[in-house]
Amino acid sequence: MKYKNIDGKDYPVQNVDGNEVPVIPATAKEIVKNKRTGKIYASKDEFEKDVSDPLTDTKQEDFSQDVEITVASLKVFGKTKL
Fold first, then answer.
1. What phi and psi, each to the nearest 5 degrees, are found at residue 37?
2. What pTM was estimated for this model as a whole?
3. 22-32 pLDDT, tens digit each
4. How far apart, in whole angstroms, are the C-alpha atoms of residue 64 and residue 34?
């Protein structure tokens, strides 16, 4: 596998449409919460248990899901016309 050095770090390179493109690592975090109350749940299963619990007023319509993606920090170089 080929690697490309960017900002002192080596990243694997993948061929996309004839161009060598570095594969930048990223992490994804799923955030499940009640959009009415703002309560954050550890998982969708935990939210479903809250909906099923007769002691709470949580409904399926209260479900909200976000995905937070974090990628490596890179310097971006570009050319502009002056």
1. -100, -20
2. 0.61
3. 888 889 999 99
4. 6
